[in-house]
Amino acid sequence: MTVLHRSALTITRKQPYADWANGLCDDETDTVAYTDDLPRTIYLVPAIDTSTGVADLLGEFWADIFEEELAAWSEDEGTWPAQRTRELFEDWFDVELTDTVIDLAPDEPLGEAEMEMAAISDALNHCAWCGIELEPDEGRNVGLSVAERERLASREGLALTLFADDEKPLTGIVTGRDSPAAAAGEDLIFRACTSRCEKLIRKKAPHALRRLLEHLRIN
Fold it and tell me: Residues of the chain whose pLDDT is less than 70?
C-alpha cells in the first residue's frame, strides 16, 4: 500500500453532456441513457496544500479535462461545442476533490508507459504458446513476416497480442522498421520454449495475424 503524491479530481458528467452525446446519435436506438450511475472519470493532479481548493485546480486543468471528456464520446472535434468556457464546463460536469490517493496495488503498472514496458517484459520472458517462464538462456525466437507491416507502425518496439481461432492469446514484439530483425523478414517475434511450441505458433499465428490485419483494414 503506497500513498501517492497526488490528489484526485472526480468528474461526473451532467445532463447537458448526455444531451450533447445523445444529439450525435444517428437513430433513436443509439442513445445513452443518462442516470446517476453514468461512468465517472478520475484525474490525478498535483498534491494540494492547505491553501489549494477545487477552484484553483480547475483553473489550471478544466480545459484539458473538458477536451478529454468530449473525446471520450467523440474524437471528431467538429462535434464539440465551439465555445468551451469555464462556465460551460461547470454546467456540464460536477467535480469532487480527493486530497489523499492510496495505491493498494503498488506492484502493478500505474501508467500506460509502465503497462507497455510490463507487456514487453512478459512477451520476452514467457513462451507465447504455453506461457511458461523462460530463463535468460532458454527458449528461441519465432519470427514472422508481416505483408502489411505499415498497419502495425504504431506498435513498433511494443508488444502485440493476436488471438488464435480458439481465442488463445499469442503475444509477441513488433520489431523496429530499421532493425536487423526486420531486415531479415522478422517483423513480429514471439518467444517459444520448445520446438513443439514453436511449431504451434508458426501454425496458429499467421492466421491470427491475417484476422487482425483484416480488422485494421476495415476500420
Answer: 26-38, 50-52, 219
Are 183 and 120 in a shared domain?
yes
Domain with 138 in it: 112-218
Element (H, E) at 3: strand 2-4
Q: What is d(CA 8, CA 6) in angstroms, rounded to the nearest whole number?
A: 7
Q: Taking each helix axis as running N to C, give the angle between helix 15-23 and helix 54-73, from 0 to 180 degrees, rounded to the nearest 10.
A: 20
State pTM to two decimals: 0.65
Bridge partners of residue 159, in order along the sequence: 173
Number of structural domains the chain divides into: 2
Per-residue pLDDT, 173: 97
Paired strand residues for 6: 46
The domain boundary residue, chosen from 103, 123, 139: 103
Cell matching residue 25: 446519435
Cα-atom radius of gyration of the chain, to the nearest Å? 23
Angle of CA points 54, 55, 56, to nearest 5°: 90
Is 17 exposed, middle or buried (CB count within 10 Å of its CB: 0-12, 13-18, 19+)?
Answer: buried
Residue 27: predicted pLDDT:
60
CA distances from 1 to 104, 109, 154, 190 (A): 5, 14, 34, 35
